[in-house]
Model the fold of this input.
Amino acid sequence: MPAAFLLLLLGMASGCGRFQQKAPPDMVYVSAEGALYLHDRVAVVSNRIAEVKNGDALRVVERAGRFLKVKTSQGQIGWIEQSAVVDSGVYDQFANLAAANKNDPVVATGTLDDELYMHILPGRTTQHFYLLPANTKVELLARASAPRTPIQAASPEARPAQRAGAEAVPGLPQSQPVVMEDWWLGRDARGRTGWLLGNLIYVNVPDDIAQYAEGQQIVGAYVLRTVEDPESDFPNHEAPEYLTLEAPLEAGRPFDYNEVRIFTWSVRHHRYETAFRLRPIAGFLPVKTGMEKGPDGSEIPTFSFVIAGNDNVVTDPATGITRPASPRTLHYEMIETVVKRMGPDMGPIPLLDRGEKQRKEEARRRGRRR
Done:
């Protein structure tokens, strides 16, 4: 074989190598909370190289047992414990969660009462990553329930009938009741999305109507319209009128809310009054509000929401989100202070059967208050 031909083959081989894709860098992301530093060596006595914070991306330079030698985006190199970071697989899970829920409607907004980790699924022991500081404002996208401890979640007793408050069966060994917690799928201002522990989130509700919760929690408040009241203290003297969703205080309920209520503003008395109330129902987020043309051509508020058509609900085994097996969508319009049902579904509305035991308990509580 001529020498010139051999040189040509070698040149072609080296040229092809230039077009081979390089392996992606080995990346990790800081998941620890609080101040964290890279160190110049793995030793009891070492020097701090750089400070890193939750969510920072680090490129892995070397691995040594439970320690990683990493490089920051500013080119600083130092050692960090592997337990303080998550790998790119976890990072991708959170990125996919954000992308999958990017266009979901916002059902409410909330404020964090304390710093909270975002989890990939509801549950205290599920994978977490982003740490949000206290007072962070978040958009709430969905509600779910999960057992407080993984032992309860994995045990055969972790069934709805065995939740707190269930009847004991005489003659049989009794398991510990499953304590449930509510979680919210939340999104912060940077678009980071994850599940947040619900009892440390305050759903943002206007103070003017929060006082009317009557022992329930308001899980959503939506402005239907504004009315002018020159004697009111509202901005521009425009009083907002609200659609609210209210729910029992206990966690783990198989519905998102059990009451829909409309607050209209009385220009005569300068106060809120209840124009519509529907309870107890098994309602599910989200709700829809809008404006349509009325009989006289003016715009009137409309709203619709989903309820369960029967007692059957379906719970997603991964997320704990419940949905009705037979959903029904109810539509309403509001002309002045009159709320009127409309649309194709005009059938009877199924009300929640709260059970004889709950009715007796409520009667006992009322007797105590007297």
Notes: The CA atoms of residues 258 and 280 lie 5 Å apart. Residues 207-354 form one domain. The longest strand covers residues 217-228. The chain has five helices and 24 strands.
